[in-house]
Amino acid sequence: MQELVPHTTAIRPSPFSSLRARYFSTPLNGAVTLVCATVALWLLWSAFDWAVLHAVFGTGQREACLAAEGACWSVVSSRWRIVLFGLYPFEEQWRSGLACLVMGAVIALSCAPWFWNARRLPLLWVTGFATFYLLMRGGFFGLPVVTEQNWGGLSLTLFIFAAVCILGMPLAICFALLRRSKLPWIARTMALVIDTIRSLPLLSIMFTFAIVLPFVLPGWLTGDKLYRVIVGYALFFACYQAEIIRGGIQALPAGQEEAAMALGLGYWHRVGYIVLPQAFKNALPPTINQVVITFKETSLVTIIGFFDVMASGRAASGTAEWNFAVIEIYVFVALIFFVFVFSLSRYGAYLERRLDVGRR
Question: In this structure, which long-range contacts are made by residues 141-145, counting pairs with CB atoms below 8 Å and at least 24 apart in sequence?
Fold first, then answer.
Protein backbone atom coordinates (compact mmCIF):
# COMPACT_ATOMS: atom_id res chain seq x y z
CA MET A 1 0.00 0.00 0.00
CA GLN A 2 1.31 3.36 -1.01
CA GLU A 3 2.22 5.65 1.84
CA LEU A 4 0.40 8.95 1.81
CA VAL A 5 2.70 11.97 1.78
CA PRO A 6 1.18 15.17 3.15
CA HIS A 7 1.01 17.98 0.60
CA THR A 8 3.19 20.94 1.55
CA THR A 9 2.80 24.41 0.12
CA ALA A 10 5.88 26.52 -0.49
CA ILE A 11 5.82 29.68 1.57
CA ARG A 12 6.96 32.71 -0.36
CA PRO A 13 9.10 35.12 1.65
CA SER A 14 7.68 38.57 2.27
CA PRO A 15 9.19 41.57 0.45
CA PHE A 16 10.64 42.83 3.73
CA SER A 17 12.41 39.55 4.47
CA SER A 18 13.74 39.34 0.90
CA LEU A 19 15.04 42.91 1.17
CA ARG A 20 16.67 42.16 4.50
CA ALA A 21 18.28 38.95 3.23
CA ARG A 22 19.60 40.65 0.11
CA TYR A 23 20.89 43.97 1.46
CA PHE A 24 21.18 43.62 5.27
CA SER A 25 22.31 40.04 5.75
CA THR A 26 25.41 41.15 7.69
CA PRO A 27 26.40 44.38 9.46
CA LEU A 28 28.91 45.12 6.68
CA ASN A 29 26.30 44.62 3.94
CA GLY A 30 23.89 46.85 5.85
CA ALA A 31 26.49 49.61 6.20
CA VAL A 32 27.39 49.44 2.49
CA THR A 33 23.70 49.52 1.56
CA LEU A 34 23.05 52.60 3.71
CA VAL A 35 26.08 54.45 2.35
CA CYS A 36 25.21 53.67 -1.30
CA ALA A 37 21.55 54.59 -0.73
CA THR A 38 22.56 57.91 0.85
CA VAL A 39 24.89 58.77 -2.04
CA ALA A 40 22.24 57.77 -4.61
CA LEU A 41 19.55 59.89 -2.93
CA TRP A 42 21.92 62.86 -2.73
CA LEU A 43 22.75 62.57 -6.43
CA LEU A 44 19.09 62.24 -7.37
CA TRP A 45 18.11 65.25 -5.27
CA SER A 46 20.97 67.35 -6.69
CA ALA A 47 19.95 66.45 -10.24
CA PHE A 48 16.28 67.21 -9.52
CA ASP A 49 17.19 70.52 -7.89
CA TRP A 50 19.37 71.52 -10.88
CA ALA A 51 17.05 70.25 -13.62
CA VAL A 52 13.66 71.28 -12.20
CA LEU A 53 13.57 73.41 -9.05
CA HIS A 54 16.12 76.06 -10.05
CA ALA A 55 15.83 75.62 -13.82
CA VAL A 56 14.73 78.24 -16.34
CA PHE A 57 12.08 77.28 -18.88
CA GLY A 58 10.53 79.15 -21.77
CA THR A 59 11.88 80.64 -24.98
CA GLY A 60 14.43 83.44 -25.12
CA GLN A 61 15.19 83.59 -21.39
CA ARG A 62 18.93 84.21 -21.79
CA GLU A 63 19.22 86.85 -19.05
CA ALA A 64 17.25 84.74 -16.61
CA CYS A 65 19.50 81.77 -17.42
CA LEU A 66 22.63 83.78 -16.63
CA ALA A 67 21.25 84.68 -13.21
CA ALA A 68 19.82 81.25 -12.42
CA GLU A 69 21.53 78.53 -10.38
CA GLY A 70 19.94 75.63 -12.25
CA ALA A 71 19.62 74.36 -15.78
CA CYS A 72 18.83 76.61 -18.72
CA TRP A 73 16.21 74.68 -20.71
CA SER A 74 15.46 77.87 -22.59
CA VAL A 75 18.27 76.96 -24.99
CA VAL A 76 16.42 73.77 -25.91
CA SER A 77 13.10 75.53 -26.50
CA SER A 78 14.89 78.21 -28.53
CA ARG A 79 17.25 75.98 -30.57
CA TRP A 80 15.51 72.59 -30.81
CA ARG A 81 15.01 72.96 -34.57
CA ILE A 82 18.77 73.01 -35.08
CA VAL A 83 19.15 69.78 -33.11
CA LEU A 84 16.36 67.93 -34.90
CA PHE A 85 16.69 69.28 -38.45
CA GLY A 86 20.23 70.65 -38.74
CA LEU A 87 20.80 72.65 -41.92
CA TYR A 88 17.49 71.64 -43.52
CA PRO A 89 15.67 74.74 -44.93
CA PHE A 90 13.39 76.26 -42.31
CA GLU A 91 10.27 76.41 -44.49
CA GLU A 92 10.69 72.73 -45.48
CA GLN A 93 11.39 71.31 -42.03
CA TRP A 94 7.93 69.79 -41.88
CA ARG A 95 9.15 67.30 -44.48
CA SER A 96 12.07 66.30 -42.30
CA GLY A 97 9.79 65.88 -39.29
CA LEU A 98 7.29 63.82 -41.29
CA ALA A 99 10.13 61.64 -42.61
CA CYS A 100 11.28 60.96 -39.04
CA LEU A 101 7.74 59.99 -38.06
CA VAL A 102 7.56 57.61 -41.03
CA MET A 103 10.82 55.93 -40.00
CA GLY A 104 9.65 55.75 -36.40
CA ALA A 105 6.41 54.11 -37.56
CA VAL A 106 8.41 51.56 -39.57
CA ILE A 107 10.47 50.67 -36.50
CA ALA A 108 7.30 50.39 -34.38
CA LEU A 109 5.49 48.23 -36.96
CA SER A 110 8.53 45.96 -37.16
CA CYS A 111 7.75 45.00 -33.56
CA ALA A 112 4.34 43.60 -34.54
CA PRO A 113 4.41 39.78 -34.96
CA TRP A 114 2.36 40.05 -38.18
CA PHE A 115 5.38 41.55 -39.95
CA TRP A 116 7.75 38.78 -38.83
CA ASN A 117 7.85 37.31 -42.30
CA ALA A 118 10.61 37.00 -44.89
CA ARG A 119 8.49 39.01 -47.35
CA ARG A 120 6.57 41.46 -45.19
CA LEU A 121 9.44 42.78 -43.07
CA PRO A 122 11.81 43.63 -45.98
CA LEU A 123 8.89 45.17 -47.90
CA LEU A 124 7.97 47.31 -44.86
CA TRP A 125 11.52 48.59 -44.45
CA VAL A 126 12.14 49.23 -48.15
CA THR A 127 8.80 51.04 -48.55
CA GLY A 128 9.33 53.11 -45.39
CA PHE A 129 12.89 53.98 -46.33
CA ALA A 130 11.86 54.99 -49.88
CA THR A 131 9.14 57.24 -48.43
CA PHE A 132 11.67 58.72 -46.00
CA TYR A 133 14.14 59.42 -48.81
CA LEU A 134 11.55 60.97 -51.14
CA LEU A 135 10.28 63.28 -48.41
CA MET A 136 13.80 64.39 -47.51
CA ARG A 137 15.02 64.76 -51.10
CA GLY A 138 11.87 66.18 -52.74
CA GLY A 139 11.63 66.84 -56.45
CA PHE A 140 8.06 65.56 -56.89
CA PHE A 141 4.53 66.98 -56.40
CA GLY A 142 5.99 70.48 -56.34
CA LEU A 143 8.34 69.82 -53.42
CA PRO A 144 11.67 71.62 -53.94
CA VAL A 145 14.82 69.50 -54.05
CA VAL A 146 16.92 69.52 -50.87
CA THR A 147 20.31 67.93 -51.47
CA GLU A 148 22.07 65.68 -48.98
CA GLN A 149 24.50 68.48 -48.06
CA ASN A 150 21.60 70.27 -46.34
CA TRP A 151 20.40 67.25 -44.38
CA GLY A 152 21.19 67.10 -40.71
CA GLY A 153 20.08 66.53 -37.16
CA LEU A 154 17.97 63.57 -36.09
CA SER A 155 16.71 62.95 -39.62
CA LEU A 156 20.25 62.35 -40.91
CA THR A 157 20.98 60.00 -37.99
CA LEU A 158 17.84 57.98 -38.76
CA PHE A 159 18.68 57.95 -42.47
CA ILE A 160 22.17 56.53 -41.86
CA PHE A 161 20.87 53.98 -39.34
CA ALA A 162 18.07 52.73 -41.60
CA ALA A 163 20.31 52.57 -44.68
CA VAL A 164 22.99 50.62 -42.81
CA CYS A 165 20.44 48.08 -41.53
CA ILE A 166 18.75 47.66 -44.93
CA LEU A 167 22.07 47.12 -46.73
CA GLY A 168 23.91 45.34 -43.95
CA MET A 169 21.43 42.63 -42.91
CA PRO A 170 21.15 40.92 -46.34
CA LEU A 171 24.93 41.21 -46.72
CA ALA A 172 25.37 39.60 -43.30
CA ILE A 173 23.21 36.63 -44.30
CA CYS A 174 25.20 36.19 -47.52
CA PHE A 175 28.51 36.45 -45.68
CA ALA A 176 27.44 33.90 -43.06
CA LEU A 177 26.29 31.40 -45.70
CA LEU A 178 29.42 31.91 -47.80
CA ARG A 179 31.63 31.32 -44.76
CA ARG A 180 29.83 27.99 -44.21
CA SER A 181 30.31 26.96 -47.83
CA LYS A 182 31.57 23.43 -48.46
CA LEU A 183 34.03 24.83 -51.01
CA PRO A 184 37.19 25.63 -49.02
CA TRP A 185 38.36 28.48 -51.22
CA ILE A 186 35.04 30.30 -50.81
CA ALA A 187 34.83 29.70 -47.05
CA ARG A 188 38.45 30.72 -46.40
CA THR A 189 38.26 33.82 -48.61
CA MET A 190 35.09 34.95 -46.86
CA ALA A 191 36.65 34.27 -43.46
CA LEU A 192 39.66 36.41 -44.42
CA VAL A 193 37.41 39.29 -45.54
CA ILE A 194 35.26 39.16 -42.40
CA ASP A 195 38.20 38.90 -39.99
CA THR A 196 40.07 41.70 -41.76
CA ILE A 197 37.17 44.14 -41.60
CA ARG A 198 36.34 43.21 -37.99
CA SER A 199 39.93 43.91 -36.99
CA LEU A 200 39.72 47.52 -38.24
CA PRO A 201 38.16 50.42 -36.27
CA LEU A 202 34.88 51.70 -37.70
CA LEU A 203 36.27 55.23 -37.89
CA SER A 204 39.15 54.13 -40.12
CA ILE A 205 36.71 52.40 -42.46
CA MET A 206 34.59 55.56 -42.62
CA PHE A 207 37.64 57.69 -43.42
CA THR A 208 38.72 55.24 -46.11
CA PHE A 209 35.36 55.25 -47.86
CA ALA A 210 34.88 59.01 -47.45
CA ILE A 211 38.35 60.33 -48.35
CA VAL A 212 40.63 57.62 -49.77
CA LEU A 213 38.19 55.78 -52.03
CA PRO A 214 37.69 58.67 -54.53
CA PHE A 215 41.42 58.53 -55.36
CA VAL A 216 41.30 54.88 -56.44
CA LEU A 217 37.88 54.74 -58.14
CA PRO A 218 36.78 56.26 -61.45
CA GLY A 219 34.76 59.44 -61.17
CA TRP A 220 31.47 57.85 -62.24
CA LEU A 221 31.76 55.28 -59.44
CA THR A 222 32.65 57.52 -56.49
CA GLY A 223 29.19 58.92 -55.78
CA ASP A 224 28.34 61.22 -52.90
CA LYS A 225 30.43 61.06 -49.71
CA LEU A 226 27.37 60.28 -47.59
CA TYR A 227 26.54 57.15 -49.58
CA ARG A 228 30.16 55.97 -49.56
CA VAL A 229 30.20 56.23 -45.77
CA ILE A 230 26.91 54.33 -45.56
CA VAL A 231 28.32 51.53 -47.76
CA GLY A 232 31.44 51.29 -45.58
CA TYR A 233 29.37 51.27 -42.39
CA ALA A 234 27.03 48.62 -43.84
CA LEU A 235 30.02 46.44 -44.71
CA PHE A 236 31.32 46.79 -41.14
CA PHE A 237 27.87 45.95 -39.75
CA ALA A 238 27.51 42.97 -42.09
CA CYS A 239 30.79 41.39 -40.99
CA TYR A 240 29.88 41.55 -37.30
CA GLN A 241 26.30 40.43 -37.90
CA ALA A 242 27.50 37.57 -40.14
CA GLU A 243 29.45 36.10 -37.23
CA ILE A 244 26.37 36.45 -35.01
CA ILE A 245 24.23 34.62 -37.56
CA ARG A 246 26.90 31.96 -38.06
CA GLY A 247 26.93 31.37 -34.31
CA GLY A 248 23.15 30.95 -34.39
CA ILE A 249 23.45 28.44 -37.23
CA GLN A 250 26.14 26.44 -35.42
CA ALA A 251 23.87 26.18 -32.38
CA LEU A 252 21.34 24.17 -34.41
CA PRO A 253 21.36 20.39 -34.07
CA ALA A 254 23.08 18.86 -37.10
CA GLY A 255 20.28 16.36 -37.53
CA GLN A 256 17.76 18.98 -38.62
CA GLU A 257 19.54 19.89 -41.83
CA GLU A 258 20.34 16.26 -42.50
CA ALA A 259 16.67 15.34 -42.07
CA ALA A 260 15.70 18.11 -44.49
CA MET A 261 18.18 16.75 -47.03
CA ALA A 262 16.76 13.26 -46.54
CA LEU A 263 13.29 14.63 -47.32
CA GLY A 264 14.61 16.01 -50.60
CA LEU A 265 14.51 19.72 -49.76
CA GLY A 266 16.83 21.88 -51.87
CA TYR A 267 19.51 24.15 -50.44
CA TRP A 268 17.49 27.37 -50.50
CA HIS A 269 14.44 25.69 -48.99
CA ARG A 270 16.57 24.28 -46.17
CA VAL A 271 18.18 27.65 -45.54
CA GLY A 272 15.01 29.73 -45.84
CA TYR A 273 12.57 27.53 -43.92
CA ILE A 274 14.71 25.61 -41.43
CA VAL A 275 18.17 27.07 -40.86
CA LEU A 276 17.79 30.87 -40.87
CA PRO A 277 14.56 31.19 -38.81
CA GLN A 278 16.05 29.14 -35.98
CA ALA A 279 19.46 30.81 -36.34
CA PHE A 280 17.90 34.26 -35.91
CA LYS A 281 16.00 33.02 -32.87
CA ASN A 282 19.19 31.67 -31.31
CA ALA A 283 21.09 34.84 -32.19
CA LEU A 284 18.37 37.25 -31.05
CA PRO A 285 20.16 38.77 -27.99
CA PRO A 286 23.43 39.62 -29.80
CA THR A 287 21.47 40.82 -32.86
CA ILE A 288 19.51 43.32 -30.75
CA ASN A 289 22.78 44.40 -29.16
CA GLN A 290 24.37 44.91 -32.58
CA VAL A 291 21.43 47.03 -33.78
CA VAL A 292 21.64 49.19 -30.64
CA ILE A 293 25.39 49.69 -31.12
CA THR A 294 24.81 50.57 -34.78
CA PHE A 295 22.37 53.32 -33.85
CA LYS A 296 24.70 54.79 -31.23
CA GLU A 297 27.77 54.71 -33.49
CA THR A 298 26.07 56.80 -36.16
CA SER A 299 27.38 59.74 -34.10
CA LEU A 300 30.89 58.96 -35.46
CA VAL A 301 29.94 60.51 -38.80
CA THR A 302 30.24 63.95 -37.22
CA ILE A 303 34.04 63.52 -37.23
CA ILE A 304 34.13 63.32 -41.03
CA GLY A 305 31.99 66.38 -41.60
CA PHE A 306 28.34 65.31 -41.40
CA PHE A 307 25.83 67.44 -39.52
CA ASP A 308 24.17 64.65 -37.52
CA VAL A 309 22.32 65.10 -34.24
CA MET A 310 25.57 65.40 -32.25
CA ALA A 311 27.01 68.06 -34.56
CA SER A 312 23.63 69.82 -34.55
CA GLY A 313 23.71 69.87 -30.76
CA ARG A 314 27.13 71.52 -30.76
CA ALA A 315 25.92 74.07 -33.29
CA ALA A 316 22.83 74.84 -31.19
CA SER A 317 24.99 75.95 -28.26
CA GLY A 318 27.87 77.26 -30.34
CA THR A 319 26.53 80.79 -30.78
CA ALA A 320 27.58 83.70 -28.61
CA GLU A 321 24.05 83.90 -27.23
CA TRP A 322 23.92 80.36 -25.84
CA ASN A 323 27.55 79.29 -25.49
CA PHE A 324 27.14 78.89 -21.72
CA ALA A 325 24.38 76.24 -22.03
CA VAL A 326 26.41 73.35 -23.44
CA ILE A 327 25.42 70.83 -20.76
CA GLU A 328 21.69 71.33 -21.33
CA ILE A 329 22.02 70.71 -25.07
CA TYR A 330 24.03 67.55 -24.51
CA VAL A 331 21.45 66.35 -21.98
CA PHE A 332 18.76 66.88 -24.63
CA VAL A 333 20.78 64.95 -27.24
CA ALA A 334 21.47 62.20 -24.70
CA LEU A 335 17.74 61.98 -24.01
CA ILE A 336 17.05 61.46 -27.73
CA PHE A 337 19.57 58.61 -27.88
CA PHE A 338 18.24 57.19 -24.62
CA VAL A 339 14.65 57.02 -25.89
CA PHE A 340 15.66 55.10 -29.03
CA VAL A 341 18.25 52.83 -27.42
CA PHE A 342 16.25 52.04 -24.28
CA SER A 343 13.16 51.25 -26.38
CA LEU A 344 15.17 48.87 -28.58
CA SER A 345 16.73 47.22 -25.53
CA ARG A 346 13.41 46.73 -23.77
CA TYR A 347 11.83 45.35 -26.92
CA GLY A 348 14.74 42.93 -27.26
CA ALA A 349 14.19 41.77 -23.67
CA TYR A 350 10.48 41.28 -24.45
CA LEU A 351 11.33 39.18 -27.51
CA GLU A 352 13.70 37.04 -25.45
CA ARG A 353 10.93 36.33 -22.96
CA ARG A 354 8.37 35.71 -25.71
CA LEU A 355 10.60 33.32 -27.66
CA ASP A 356 12.20 31.86 -24.50
CA VAL A 357 15.72 32.64 -25.76
CA GLY A 358 18.81 32.41 -23.57
CA ARG A 359 17.23 30.42 -20.72
CA ARG A 360 18.62 27.06 -21.67
Answer: 143/92, 143/95, 144/89, 144/92
Q: What is the mean pLDDT of residues 61-71?
A: 81
Provide the pLDDT for residue 1.
47
Which of 236, 242, 244 lies closest to 160 in space, CA to CA?
236
The C-alpha atoms of residue 89 and residue 81 are separated, in whole angstroms, by 11
pLDDT at 2 over 80: no
* pLDDT above 90: residue 22: no
SS3 sequence of 68-137 = CCCCECHHHHHHHHHHHHCCCCHHHHHHHHHHHHHHHHHHHHCCCHHHCCCCHHHHHHHHHHHHHHHHHH
Which of 168, 163, 158 lies closest to 103, judged by CA?
158
Nearest to 298 by CA among 146, 164, 171: 164
Let me know if domain 78-355 sits in CATH 1.10.3720.10.
Answer: yes
d(CA 245, CA 173): 7
Q: Which of 91, 160, 136 is nearest to 308 (CA)?
A: 160
What digits encode the pLDDT tens for the residues 229-286? 999 999 999 999 999 999 988 888 877 777 888 888 888 888 888 888 888 888 888 8
Model pTM score? 0.84
Distance in angstroms (rounded) separating the CA atoms of residues 109 and 124? 8
Where do the H-state alpha helices sit in the chain? 15-23, 27-48, 62-67, 74-85, 93-109, 120-137, 153-179, 184-198, 202-207, 213-216, 219-222, 225-250, 254-262, 267-270, 276-282, 284-296, 309-316, 326-355
